[in-house]
Structure formats: structure tokens, C-alpha cells
């Protein structure tokens, strides 16, 4: 922090701020604050990889004054606009300018800048599927997907269903899983995160309450799961609603601009996706360079993976239920590599596996 009093030379201040070893600061045009010579102020320069901010702290009761250059304001505004049309992937714009949060969703309207299709928000979430607005057309999903859309399963998910994962699947439990996930997400802390196939928002809420991310998008295809997530948020006192939004979307048609997302998390979901390859490829598209994908799922390996008839059983299971059974770590690594992700790593505990991979820089 640099401290100066009264009529301290602005040239001296510039030399301290813009001759820093931080190359980002050196590139910024000079700021021109107007200072009152009768009181003391503290000046500190903050920066990220793409923006810089000058904070002037005074002894006034009004508190610190934040001065930003135009480039910084433009970049921040652009970063907030990650939503895109799930049909043409071009940006969505609010018809009325507002922040992206769970509190601003109800009654909101967004429009695609290219195809001009309009999307709406209801009481709980934004409806951003490709079929949004269709009155007479609908497509049935696999059994595994439709099961989680039912009100009963959505209600039971955090009231007993999810707990069984620890009993017979080797899942270490939400708290431990969250701690493991945070380790993988360290490179993208303070960025935005999409909790894909979030269910009733168990991890979405943990991400929001941790305040480690600038924006949390709780995304699921099930309307009833999102309603459960909304109810949990409403029931919890002092929940940080300003940095979380609920979105209904198809995992294979994500409503985000390319290279706009810092992290994607998918807890106990990969095996339920109709096409894991299509989904992970879509995740790779929306991740920015250096962005991180973290997921948990079940894996069947060991002596069973060498049984000659296992592949036939797996194919039949997938055709009937829509669930995908993974039989090796190599298969998961190959899935990530085929989708353009690198740096595959995993953590195992019985049938439980947590994987992580990164978008190349």
C-alpha cells in the first residue's frame, strides 16, 4: 500500500503504481483522480490477469472510492455475460439489464442476438433448453434421465437417495468429496463454475457458500430437481443468493459461450448422461483455456473388466436404462482426451472415482 498526504506529487504516485513488476499494470493508461489536499488517503492498486483497479481510501465516512479505467469496466461486463443461445451459441442479452443471480430470474427475459429466439425465467430457474417455448413438440429422454425428473426422486435425492452412494458405491460423502474437489479446482478459484447435472443442488450450494467463486451456475435437465434446489436455498438463512443462478439445460447443448467458463463440476452424473462423449465434448467447448473439469462416477474394473461378456451386458444396460457403466480408468482418460482435455488425473475408493482434466492453454 502507498500512503500520501495532501499535495503529494502525482508523478511520484504514477511511478509507484505503473513501474511495478506487474506487466498488467504497466500497460494501463494513467488514472486521473482529483484529490483534496486537506486530508490523507491510502492508495492501493489491485490487478488480475486482465483488469486493474485503483482503490482510494480516505478518512471520510463515505468509505473507499474505487476508480477503474474503461478497459477494466468493459472486461468485467463481458465476463458476466456467459449465457448463450443453446441453438446457435451466440450471446443472450437481457431485455432489461440486470445481474445474473437466483433473485433476478423470476419473470426475466433473454433474447439471442442472432436467431432472435426468446428465453424466459420462471420462479425458480432460467429455461435454456433448445426446445424451450415449444408447445406441441417434445422428445423423450432415456429412463435414467426421466427418472430424476420425477417429483418423488427429486424430493428423495438429499433425503436418503444420495446417502446410499457411500454405503455401496464407495463415495466418501459430500463433505469429503467437496474438499477433494476444491483441491482440483485451485487453479480456477475466484472464477465462475458450472455445477452440471447438479440434482437438488447439494454441491451448488456448497460452492456458493464457500464464496470461492464469482458465480455458481446450478444446471440440470430436471425441473423438479431445480425446484428442490431453490427450496433449499430459500430455507437457509443468510444464503449468498447474489452469486448463484439456476438453469435448466441439456448437458449435450450447454447454453454458454465458447471459452467462457472457468470450471465445470459434475457430481455422480457422468454415468447417467445419454452420451458421455457428447457431454464432455460440450464441456470442453465452454471451458476457457486452462479451465478445469472435475467429475465423480462409478467404475467397474479389476477382474470383472476382463470378462468377455461384460461389454455385451454394458451395451444392453445402456440401451434399456440410458446409464453408462465405465470399466476402467483408461476408458475415462480416453473420453477426456477425445474431447480435447489434457492432464487427466483421478482419485479412487472402491467403485468411486473422481477425475479431473484441463482445457489446454
Automatic annotation (TrEMBL):
Q: Name one Pfam family in it.
A: Methyltransf_11
Residue span(s) of domain Methyltransferase type? 194-294
Q: Which UniProt keywords apply?
A: Chloroplast, Methyltransferase, Plastid, Transferase, Transit peptide
Which BP terms from GO are recorded? methylation
Show the GO cellular component annotation of the record. plastoglobule
Tell me the superkingdom of the source: Eukaryota
Name of protein: Methyltransferase type
Q: What species is given as this protein's source?
A: Trema orientale (Charcoal tree)
